[in-house]
Write a structure and sequence with these properties.
Helix content is 63%, strand content 7%. It has a three-stranded antiparallel β-sheet. Strands 1-2 form a two-stranded parallel ribbon. The protein has 266 residues and is mostly helical. It is built from eleven helices and five strands, in the order H-H-H-H-E-H-E-H-H-H-H-E-H-H-E-E.
Length: 266
């Protein structure tokens, strides 16, 4: 009985679709021109939206790069001013009558601290840390990146699934950025400052591969595997794809090696 009812219902649905098609077909001559114009307008709007998005992304990257460079110069100027203030004579009347300038606490802390834990890569490469054999966990301003709610919401649903912003942030900060920091803290050391043979092997590999992408910071799929101690799973690959979508990483394959370039500040 159920099978007979299902057969009748299927026929009724087919008849209704045919009736709907005939109704639409009868008014085709009246709406076809409007539909063609609408389709053309949609295509033009889509192209303009795509160009606008590309322009905004390019502009954002350029502005971010300029902002970082400005902050770097301001920080160095502040350090120079502090140094000059230390050398200035203490018995000058003008300085005695004027209140001392306010110095940001974070800058003052960095100047007073002989062993900073966060630097720019360019400064680190010229610092005494590169000749010290003792391991030191370093952080670098070059790899500062945060994911906002708005950026996270822009990730397509098919790619994001049920993942939360906190989980992706933990992956970025705890695995990706940490992998970059550990790699470049070792790579910029001088050979004589690396006593561990395993680190020497990694140091040679890092410096050899760096020639493939001069001017870029990157890690490889093998670097991530060595850090986590396990092969990247499907969920980790999904997270990497999300970071690509957010223009934090760029994936490049060359000679069988998977590279992840840091492009957030580029």
């Amino acid at each position: 009985m159920d099978t007979l009812e299902a057969l009748f219902q299927k026929q009724i649905d087919t008849i209704q679709r045919i009736e709907l098609f005939l109704d639409i077909y009868k008014c085709k001559q009246h709406v076809s021109e409007d539909l063609r114009e609408l389709r053309s307008d949609v295509r033009v709007a889509s192209e303009k939206l795509h160009r606008t998005r590309e322009y905004l992304e390019t502009d954002r990257r350029q502005v971010s790069s300029q902002f970082i460079e400005i902050m770097r110069k301001m920080r160095r100027n502040e350090l120079l001013m502090l140094h000059l203030l230390e050398l200035a004579p203490s018995n000058v009347d003008n300085t005695a009558s004027k209140p001392a300038p306010k110095i940001p606490s974070d800058v003052l802390k960095e100047v007073q601290n002989e062993n900073p834990t966060k630097m720019y890569l360019a400064d680190y490469s010229k610092s005494p840390f590169t000749v010290r054999s003792k391991h030191r966990a370093m952080k670098f301003y070059d790899f500062d990146a945060e994911i906002t709610e708005e950026q996270f919401d822009s990730i397509p649903k098919y790619l994001k699934g049920r993942m939360q912003l906190s989980e992706l942030t933990q992956f970025l900060q705890g695995e990706i950025i940490k992998c970059f920091e550990d790699k470049y803290a070792l790579m910029y050391k001088q050979r004589k400052a690396i006593p561990n043979q395993q680190d020497v092997t990694a140091w040679k590999e890092y410096n050899n591969l760096q020639a493939n992408f001069p001017g870029h910071s990157f890690i490889t799929q093998d670097d991530l595997t060595r850090r986590t101690g396990k092969v990247l799973d499907k969920k980790s690959y999904s997270k990497l794809q999300m970071l690509r979508h957010l223009h934090i990483l760029q994936e490049v394959r060359s000679d069988g090696i998977v590279y992840f370039l840091w492009v957030f500040n580029k």
